[in-house]
Amino acid sequence: MSSYNAPIRDMKFLFHDLGLLKAVQDLPGCEDASADMVDAILEESGKLAGNILAPLNTVGDAQGAVLENGMVRTAEGFSEAYRTFIDGGWNSLPFDPANGGQGLPWLVGMAAEEMWFSANTAWALCPLLTWGAVDLLEAHASPDQKARYLTKITSGEWTGTMNLTEPQAGSDVGALRCQATPEGDHYRIRGQKIFISWGEHDMTDNIVHLVLARTPDAPPGTKGISLFIVPKFIVNDDGTLGARNDLRVVSLEHKLGIKASPTCVMSYGDSEGAIGYLVGTENRGLNCMFTMMNNARINVGLSGLAIAERAYQQATAFARERVQGSAPDGSPQTIICYPDVRRMLLTMKASTEAMRAVTLDTVACLDRSRRASDPADRARAQTRLELMTPVVKAWCTDLGVEVASLGVQVHGGMGYMEETGAVQHLRDARIAPIYEGTNGIQAIDLLTRKVLRDGGDAVRAYIGEIDTLLALLDAEPDPAFKAICSQLARALQALGTATDWLLEQGRDGADRALAGATPYLRLFGTVAGGVMMARSALAAQAALEGGAGDTDFLKGKMVTARFYAENILPQAEALVTPICDGHSAVLALPEDQF
């Protein structure tokens, strides 16, 4: 497996040239996030990723996580890397200083997090869940719970988990059976949870499980779910660790990828019952958990982008070295000279850059939705964040798999061999479209809750912004911008056509609309990527005209944007037919014919 070099130059371009950092710097609490400080954070995060985490990626894949005598032993070097991570203060980047956080924008934190995921996806899943746990507890925990847990989880000294799934309750969370019986100031938790990432490990002294369960008189379905803090070790009033709680890991799943991330079957209350503490009020647990879930959805989308970046870097390094055939003068020729290999590499590069721009632009909305002084600004940012969250999660993770697969293809037969490392990226990427609500569920969420619910207002606002961008592109004399403008305009028309059709069908043809939900999300993501690539091309042109250095990089940004416009954006028009007409066949075939 090739080394990992963090794409810091591209991140700096998005922050500074495209203006994403400026969009959050004026927010209350973000004033200290200067360009110099942010650049330094990116540089140091890149060193952590490249020097500490990346070398452990193949080690973790080979060794995996092992369950021994009820304890999970992580792969060689993982615990030491985690200690370096905590000692560097990395876990606390985006959190409230009142709880030991650094108060930096999420935009900065997630840019750093991309590097950790690229370097070592299995390892990075642990901080991902801990970040979600902190976000949830900051929003919903009581003052006493915050005092008892938040400082240690914010620092990363303790980690957090998300416990939703049960053997009979996957996406249908309302079917869960885990029980919570009140007992004084706490509850006794009994039941089993499956697919609990990092549910047990040896990297920290304590693990704080966030568990969904039912109280005895809870109503059925999702309305009867409550949320509980269930620590591995009970935390005493003075903050020290007390008795071991009544919970254990039963087994570890044997998986296609992310083998170093322990995916646990957890049992609560085999003896006297695990002690749990109610978060919020009874029967409102799913509402609280959505804070963590939405955080995780953006982070999982980020992981799709990150693994695409790693696969692209490895494929490019291989293509520059792999000699196949001869040049016209008879000299040996590397495969990067062949047009089809260049096409694959450019597809990987353009897709990855588009994903990064869309994701970080969405994260800037997250910062504005929480920190903007004007309530109207916060509301607008929240609406855009909600619209884009399923797109980031599903579009980026689908593309992460596709880009990783292209990486194997660039390697040819060598890519199918484990020793090159290319296939590990594909195996590790495959879980992300399933995590945090499968991508089909994300598509349904985009259609029903983000498009149909408000009558298309959020989408129309988004389309209106693209109209303004098209005018800027059309004003540029360079033929490259004319090409980008033309393709983006056609893709925008496709998005508008599909949206109008779905809005009409959503009134009385729910199944017809739902049959096209997944291609609609793909269409939306493709257009969103095109928008950000067009904005990047304009920003690169402005930087060149302003006399900025690194002209090769800036010219490359413009070429990559044109490639996206001419080779990827045309797929948008092709998706209109499956969205608007595909339901006929989808709904027609009898079940016994499958």
Structure description:
With 594 residues, the chain is an alpha+beta fold. Among the domains are: 8-155, Butyryl-Coa Dehydrogenase, subunit A, domain 1 (Orthogonal Bundle), CATH 1.10.540; 159-284, Butyryl-CoA Dehydrogenase, subunit A, domain 2 (Beta Barrel), CATH 2.40.110; 454-588. The protein is 58% helix and 13% strand. The protein contains 21 helices and 14 strands. The strands form 4 sheets. Strands 3, 4, 5, 6, 7, 10, 11 and 12 form an 8-stranded mixed sheet that branches. A two-stranded antiparallel ribbon has the order 1-2. A two-stranded antiparallel sheet has the order 8-9. A hairpin with a 2-residue loop joins strand 1 (66-68) and strand 2 (71-73). Helix 9 (285-321) runs antiparallel to helix 10, helix 10 packs across helix 18 (551-568) and helix 14 (457-474) runs antiparallel to helix 15. It starts with 7 loop residues before the first helix and ends in a 6-residue tail after the last helix.
The N- to C-terminal Cα distance equals 41 Å
Helical proportion, percent range: 55-70%
CATH architecture of the domain at 8-155: Orthogonal Bundle
* Tally of individual helices: 21
CATH-assigned homologous superfamily of the domain at 8-155: Acyl-CoA dehydrogenase/oxidase, N-terminal domain
The CATH topology of the domain at 8-155 turns out to be Butyryl-Coa Dehydrogenase, subunit A, domain 1
CATH class division of the domain at 8-155: Mainly Alpha
Quantity of strands, as a count: 14
Mean pLDDT: 96
Shape: globular
Structural class: alpha+beta
- How would you sum up the major sheet? 8 strands, mixed
Q: What's the alpha carbon Rg, rounded to whole Å?
A: 24 Å
Low-confidence stretches: none
* Percentage of residues in DSSP E strands: 5-15%
